[in-house]
């Protein structure tokens, strides 16, 4: 006779969360290697800045995905804005690094800033600030906690409080200690 529990297919792993954790590890490793290279004898090598330019967007995208992942449903419609933000960050940091360092007092200014600073401020800094709130607003209903989720969290909180009070020797009053 077989055990009915063993015939059930194993639960599928959360591929989105696992991929985001791997990406976060890779991004943080690239950032750490870039910073560690600054301690080399002769200053930071050129590739160290490129590791940061790639590692930072990867880590930020992974953190956004981890924050937005809801169970095994993944991130849904947020894939496009998250990919857009990561791409903007990679292109922005890469463009700032790739442009020649020829700024001087007579350089052309982009909205009041030298080219590389303008790319970082306007592209890397401001563009994601415009895109992400709109994306979250458009996906709010599908990506936030439902009423059932909130009630499940409240029930777990009540269970935890009851377990803590029974472990502490009985219910505690609302009186402050003293």
The residue-averaged pLDDT reads: 86
Main β sheet profile: none
Through-space gap between termini: 62 Å
H/E series: HHHHHH
Q: Note the total helix count.
A: 6
Q: Beta-sheet strand percentage?
A: under 5%
Can you put this structure into words, describing what you see?
The chain is elongated and about 70 Å long. It has helices at 15-37, 46-68, 79-98, 115-138, 140-143, 147-167. It is built from 6 helices and no strands. The chain is 65% helix and 0% strand. It is mainly alpha-helical. The chain has one domain (15-167).
Write the layout of secondary structure elements.
Elements (H helix, E strand, L loop, with lengths): L14 H23 L8 H23 L10 H20 L16 H24 L1 H4 L3 H21 L11
Essential attributes:
178 residues; mainly alpha
Short summary:
The chain is an all-alpha fold.
């Amino acid at each position: 006779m077989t055990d009915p529990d063993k015939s059930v297919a194993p639960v599928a792993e959360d591929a989105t969360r696992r991929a985001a954790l791997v990406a976060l590890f890779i991004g943080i490793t690239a950032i750490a290697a870039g910073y560690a290279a600054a301690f080399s004898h002769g200053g930071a090598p050129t590739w160290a800045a490129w590791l940061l330019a790639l590692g930072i967007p990867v880590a930020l995208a992974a953190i956004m995905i981890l924050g937005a992942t809801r169970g095994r449903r993944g991130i849904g419609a947020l894939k496009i804005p998250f990919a857009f933000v990561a791409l903007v960050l990679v292109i922005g940091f890469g463009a700032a690094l790739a442009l020649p360092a020829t700024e001087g007092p007579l350089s052309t200014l982009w909205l009041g800033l030298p080219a590389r600073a303008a790319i970082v401020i306007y592209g890397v800094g401001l563009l994601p600030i415009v895109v992400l709130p709109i994306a979250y607003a458009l996906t709010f209903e599908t990506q936030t906690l439902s009423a059932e989720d909130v009630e499940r969290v409240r029930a777990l909180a009540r269970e935890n409080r009851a377990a803590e009070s029974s472990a502490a020797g009985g219910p505690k009053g609302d009186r402050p200690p003293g």
